[in-house]
Fold this protein.
Amino acid sequence: MLRAGNRDHLHCLNPAAEARGLQRGLALADARAFCPDLVTRPADLAAEAGFLRALCRWMERYAPFVAREGADGLVADITGVAHLFGGEAALRADLTARLARAGLTVTAGIAGTRGAAHALARHGGGIAAAGAEGAALRPLPVSALRLDHDTVEGLGRLGLKRIGDLMGLPRGPVARRFGQGVFLRLDQALGASAEPLSPDRAEPHFGVRMALPEPIGLLRDVEAGLLRLLVRLCAALARHEAGARRLRLEMRRVDSSDAVVEIGLARPMRDPQRILALFRKGIDEVDSGFGIERLRLTAPLVEPLPPEQYGRPRPAGDEPLADLVTRLGNRLGFGRIRVFHPEDSHIPERSFSSRPFASLSAATAQPGAPWPVGAERPVTIFAPEPVFPAPEIAEGPVTPPARFVWRRMQMATARATGPERIAPEWWSDDPAWRGGLRDYWKVETRQGRRLWMFHTPQAPGWHVQGEFA
Amino acid sequence: MASAIDPAIPTLRPARVHEVTGPGAVVFALCQAAGLKGPVLWLTPDHWPEALFPTGVARLLPPGRLITATAPSEVELLWAVEEGLRSGAVGLVVARLDRPLGLTAGRRLQLAAESGRVTGLMIVREGAGSPAAETRWTCTPEAAEDSTRMRWSRIKNKKGTCGEWQVSLHGTSHSVTVVSATGQRAVAAREGG
């Protein structure tokens, strides 16, 4: 059952329900009236789409071009491949038998055009010989032509219920009433106008598995097995010029429970030995129980990693650094390992950003890149801290207080450099800058500390925001 | 980068773990990092309120060389320090410690530094040094005519003498120099260790 809007209706039903006269799209309340003991479950469209994708991948055993057709169909271009399976009829029988063995109910149609195959598959299945599409389609209802619901209903009101009824009609009046779509679909089904098939380019799947004849439990054995899987996985990654960013190792114990080790990598990589070293800590913590009988290794997240030419200058020590960040990131979290990046803003807090190391690729990370150096800035920065006592409002130019208390320390100003006026960015409403303009001063105290202080003329007061060398 | 470090600046013995205290500790760590090669791993506890300001740091060290990391607890922080030292992938590991380091932990970090050939520098609170540290420094900015004057004093040294240096940071030439001793100055620059 599927909920669309405020209405539940039947999405999919089993043969027993069909035998009772229910059909797809029927409202659930009506269906219950027909059949009070109806058992329903909510439809899971995402899972259905996922299953169809998997089936699409499986279908590539029959033909190179396979695509999804609607939410519940697959279409394959079997031009030139049918003889490999002993002809079209044998291919269709083989396909139906295999899917039936897997517990699926399928109907398959083979025809010279995509439209005709679609119509046949959805109305009982069958094979239309090349050139005989017209004869095969003649008795089928108009809805088989992939027309929308309103058009089908409109045609029905005119008495045009079968495709055969449409074939001999003068085209002008029908097209004027229902649009060109009707005859376009008819021509596509009959082969009068071409319709290409664009296959779903199957996403390469990076996963390998290994079943073991005897359960294993020793760390050394698991590592040996993992290394073999890694070699195969890395070969697959190398074929697709990709590198793994996240790896997941599932270990099925003999009692059917899974132990999972997942690692993230700071840089895409496909070197089995280096990845194995990074897995070591995770595997060590796994309880093997009564033994592990199956290993499965997948790379849920991959990034392009093109092959590199030897001798290309690259930052020295980049690989050990990536390994270090991987180890730190897997324990502390990759978001905590960050690098600085300059930003174009005159507001001190916004003149830089710190980004996760792992979000930068090796090519964009520039450890020696020059940094824009403007006016003198402190080396540390913190949230503005008010100083005491608050100054009296005085006439004339404002200068830093001669004595003040900061962090419970008595300070006396020896020299002050400034002011440098920084205005808030009018286009961004930063809560920290609601106080308005700031006049920044470098205040050298007699105690030695050199502070970066600012005065807000609109709300008189002094704050410390940073410390110089 | 226009950052130049005076060769007379006292340097840290490589592949050992050192300690620094005082208000000028951050600048000391940045100056030491500028004299070393490779990236710098800068570790702080999560809750630490002060952060490095890269625009100001740029005068001493290209901020791109800094890799900052925060740790949720003391144990995680020390684990990260050890990983950084042992990996050999960075030039310097700087960590800010909240509490004094125990003898075992300190010794462990020394061994990690030796095996990875990486120098470590712990920024500790005043008087919270660890007995395992190779050297300990106190860095304080000083009020003087020169507005960047600092006093760096080595207050502990396992394999040498202690000493005191007057250091200046030149804003225009982006360089750090040891200021020569003058007759009037109470504390003369002495070479030690």
Q: What stands out?
A: Chain A touches chain B through 54 residues (CB under 8 Å). The longest strand of chain A covers residues 409-422. Residues 82 and 88 of chain A are 5 Å apart (CA to CA).
